[in-house]
């Protein structure tokens, strides 16, 4: 069986304080995967849709919805409408707990929706589950 590549975490978060907190919690949960942080939706999409990334995988996207240049929901829709990228799990991390927005994200294919600022316990719990999720994620063989 081929050696499975570790999952790269793509974090789209414009607030540096939140990004650092999220990364700290991910590390504290024992997840040592590479984390690439983008402060804008445009930068993240350019990265995700570059050939090397689209064809490389596996990765997981941590997505803030309120970005300076675009709405995270649009990013989610773009990821989930792409043949290769749609398999990537997307975790939405946002300050919005508007039920319509939450439902829209799930309808578009988000895997987890976490509201921030999150209580440390529920956040680290979610990240630990994410770590577990990352360790068992089965990435389809590329053809």
From TrEMBL:
<keyword id="KW-0597">Phosphoprotein</keyword>
<dbReference type="InterPro" id="IPR001789">
    <property type="entry name" value="Sig_transdc_resp-reg_receiver"/>
</dbReference>
<dbReference type="InterPro" id="IPR052893">
    <property type="entry name" value="TCS_response_regulator"/>
</dbReference>
<protein>
    <submittedName>
        <fullName>CheY-like chemotaxis protein</fullName>
    </submittedName>
</protein>
<dbReference type="Pfam" id="PF00072">
    <property type="entry name" value="Response_reg"/>
</dbReference>
<dbReference type="InterPro" id="IPR011006">
    <property type="entry name" value="CheY-like_superfamily"/>
</dbReference>
<feature type="modified residue" description="4-aspartylphosphate">
    <location>
        <position position="64"/>
    </location>
</feature>
<dbReference type="GO" id="GO:0000160">
    <property type="term" value="P:phosphorelay signal transduction system"/>
</dbReference>
<feature type="domain" description="Response regulatory">
    <location>
        <begin position="8"/>
        <end position="131"/>
    </location>
</feature>
């Amino acid at each position: 069986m081929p050696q499975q590549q570790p999952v790269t975490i793509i974090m789209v978060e414009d607030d540096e304080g939140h990004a650092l907190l999220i990364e700290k919690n991910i590390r504290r949960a024992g997840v040592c995967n590479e984390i690439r942080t983008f402060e804008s939706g445009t930068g993240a999409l350019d990265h995700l849709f570059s050939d090397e990334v689209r064809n490389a995988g596996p990765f997981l996207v941590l997505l803030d919805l309120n970005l300076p240049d675009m709405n995270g929901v649009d990013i989610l829709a773009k990821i989930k409408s792409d043949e290769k990228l749609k398999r990537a799990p997307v975790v939405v991390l946002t300050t919005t707990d508007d039920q319509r927005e939450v439902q829209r994200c799930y309808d578009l294919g988000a895997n987890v929706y976490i509201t921030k600022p999150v209580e440390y316990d529920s956040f680290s719990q979610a990240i630990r589950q994410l770590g577990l999720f990352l360790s068992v994620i089965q990435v389809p063989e590329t053809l």
